[in-house]
Amino acid sequence: MAASITLYQNSMINILSLAKPFNGWKLSGGDTFKVMLATSSYVPSQSHSFVSDTTNEVVGSGYTAGGVTLTNKSLTVASNRVLLGADNVQWSGISFSAKYAIIYNATQSSSSDQILLAYADLGSPRNHGNLKIRWPSGTVLTLSMEAATGFP
Predict the structure, then answer these.
(1) pLDDT digits over 22-55, tens only?
(2) For residue 66, is it left (φ>0), alpha (ψ between -120 and 50) or beta?
(3) Given 3-state DSSP classes, what are the helix, strand and coil percentages for the chain, each rounded to the nearest 5?
(4) Handedness of CA 59, 34, 116, 112 (dihedral sign)
(5) Are 64 and 126 in contact (CB under 8 A)?
(6) Most CB atoms within 10 A, among 85, 87, 102, 126?
(7) How many whole angstroms separate alpha carbon 96 and alpha carbon 129?
(8) pTM of structure
(9) In what order do the strands lie in the sheet with 98-105?
(10) pLDDT tens, 62-96?
(11) DSSP 50
(12) Which uninterrupted H or E stretch holds 102?
């Protein structure tokens, strides 16, 4: 089942202002981006801006607090689209129940400074075996930009 990915509102504001969080998405060097997991008790909100705003991160065998680091990041700009890519992520031998995958910039050490990018609703919570998130065609997020029309 394909997960739907939703940008946090403040991430979109940062994108439009050409500020953090995406300008650190570089092929080498750059910022550290992670995917953390939350239970079905987490209620995503557009008022969330930082990791410290989130609740109910999963706890259990096969999971490390803070989640996993996105590796082999790529950034492609073509045909009015920005594609942010990375390798798939996986947790093995899990003993927790995950409903949401939260993508964030983990470069800052304090959770009150770690900017949320987007979250994916994973559908029915998984609670055993392996959990793998496969980004479609290796693309974590696709941002489409259309030219504005109708302005004087």
Answers:
(1) 556 655 567 888 999 999 999 999 889 899 999 9
(2) left
(3) 10, 40, 50
(4) positive
(5) no
(6) 102
(7) 10
(8) 0.80
(9) 4-7, 116-126, 98-105, 33-38, 68-69
(10) 899 999 998 888 777 777 667 778 888 999 988 88
(11) B
(12) strand 98-105
Query: What is the residue extent of each domain of the chain?
Result: 4-144
- Residue 15: DSSP 8-state: H
Q: Who's near 26: CB < 8 A, 6+ residues apart?
A: 73, 75
Burial code of 77-98, b = ≥16 C-beta within 10 A, e = fewer? eeeeebbbbbbebebeebebbb
Round to whole Å and give the CA distance between 69 and 62.
Answer: 15
Length of the chain: 152
Q: How far apart are CA 117 and CA 25, in angstroms?
A: 11
